[in-house]
Amino acid sequence: MSYTSIDKLTTRAEKNPLEVAQAKEKGTKVFGFYCLYSPVEIALAAGGIVVGLCGTRNDPIPAAERTLPRNLCPLIKSSFGFAVEDSCPYFKSADLIVADSTCDGKKKMFEQMAEIKPLHLMYLPHNQELDVTGPFWEGEVVRFKERVEQECGINITDEMLKEAIKLTNREAAALKGLMDLNQQNPAPISGMKMMEIVFKSGFFASKQESVECLEAIVDEVGKAPQEETKQGPRVIISGVPMGLGSHKVCQLIEEAGGVVVAFENCTGYKKTMQVDTEKAPITALAEKYLATPCSIMSPNPGRIDLLNTMIADFKADAIVDLTWQACHTYNVEAENIRKYVQDDKKMPYLHIETDYSDADTEQLRVRIEAFLEMIG
Amino acid sequence: MRTIDETINRKDSNESPCDPSGETALFFAGLDIGSTATKAAIIHGVSKEVVAVAERATGWAPKEAAREALEDALSKLDVPGALISRTVATGYGRKMAAADKQVTEISCHALGAKHLVPEAMTVLDIGGQDSKMIALDEQGNVRDFLMNDKCAAGTGRFISNMATALGIDLDEFGVFAAKGTPVPISSMCAVFAESEVIGLTASGASREDLAAGIVVSIAKRLTSLAGRISFTPTIAFTGGTARNAELAKCFSEAIGVELNTPVLAPFAGAIGAALIASR
User: Fold this and answer.
1) Residue B128: Cβ within 10 Å count
2) Would you call B107 an interface residue with chain A, using a CB distance cutoff of 8 Å?
3) Are B56 and B37 in contact (CB under 8 A)?
4) CB-closest option in A338, A360, A370 to B104
5) What residues of chain B, 149 to 208, have a C-beta less than 8 Å from chain A?
6) Of A263, A181, A177, which Cα lies nearest the Cα of A212?
7) ipTM exceeds 0.90
8) pTM of the model
9) pLDDT digits over B40-69, tens only?
10) Sheet holding B142-147, edge to edge
11) Considering only CB atoms, which chain B residues are within 8 Å of A366?
């Protein structure tokens, strides 16, 4: 089924690179983000443009491999490849790259990227519970605020932050509303389409506008009568971030007759967390971002909690756990997820380790088809 | 050990395999189009017994190989007016065959192995380009499975390359391996292992000891592939490698688990496909 609001967002997104470039010419500062841990509200509060940076395509990887090891995660190589080739329009426009010390590969790659563009690295603690890590991370959020103030030449007040939080909370609610549409059975939006919508909504020059587009989709699809077509097994994809260009596994699952109903990853459901508006803005921001249940946290119980909620809410039949090659944290954590899914939830579980290339597509197709046959 | 022909029950070939109503029986066919060999199996519509099998090298024309294997199996069937009511294809070439349905080799091997070895709880299949371990439930459904990924280590192709490097026939490989004392082979890369084997031959290692060493290294690889899928007995050993009795025995010893190798082991995938066709 086609929806006007979805077509509008996807067509509208084509203008994003131009609009970002035009705004930059008028003097608006552009901040490029890679990771879900970076508080975009601070850049938004300063009147900056906030865009996601490219890192989900295979084509710039050979350029990255001239500098980076070949057996590194494709996401890191792709991000770096776009930077060295200057082929990502958002990277080109960015005045400041905002980075986080999430995994070792990214952290060390950012040292090299800093030679290409001004880059601010936020030092992320890898534990969410210790008494020392909360205040440390809040200090990092403050240090980032100071850097943005310096870039934009203004003081960011609490009032400005509250306004920005209001907008990002609205965005998170719209994203949650969008993804939750697929709690219905049959799911109204395919996994591939869902990924495209969420992915493309991350590159708008105006966050206000992307939020309005998302809200229109939730409204239109939510009200539309759903066809009672029979669908295949309902699959949740867990694990590493995915986007257009690194959508191979999602596509294979759907080609084999499965339905990807949700993504438990930082390009999916982890984007739907709210910032507490009752607390002081900096503290609330620090708390929200540190709570992101990524595998770089040790331990990382939040991922199991999130998965547990999603399995129930989306009435999932199976979990596919995706790891990019050489992503050690997700790869090692896969064993915890397998035990939880197979032993505790008694659900079928498939772990896939791959990269962005097509080299293993046919082999993966056999494994995915066999997995879906196993579910029946 | 019985031959394939004995196994597929030629003794009652004088009796027409009819269903109880006395009409001409229906048959179901399975095609397993593997990277190396293409197998066809025909089962009786009522008894589900395997009544004919045939094999062809897949070569460069899998579609032709599939057609020929099926015709060959049909000719062995020797039942006037026999009808194949449905055909299911499996294996890497499954999408090329003229069949009613395509099913992955994982599901087909599981069903075929359970049919041949009813007490099997695990299937070890060493095929041309894939090695798989499949955990079964009591009904023969797939509970979990593992496949080698992106690498020829531990596959039939690996064994065949090593046989070539040693200048011996693939069929003799098991005989050589059974006689030797294993020489450690360190590389499992199909290319590097070949150089290593040639190097060891040059330094005086015997072909028997090298063949034994290769079997041990593949067994180690399979054991690590098995990982979380434990070798729960009974294990049915299928795939082309299982045909070679000596080699199957060497594997069984190297893995340290008894393997049940049915005579029709190479046809497990095709039999499973035929069983699916009969549902």
Assistant:
1) 20
2) yes
3) yes
4) A370
5) 149-150
6) A177
7) no
8) 0.92
9) 999 999 999 999 999 999 999 999 999 999
10) B142-147, B131-136, B122-126, B235-238, B259-260
11) 92, 104-106, 130, 147
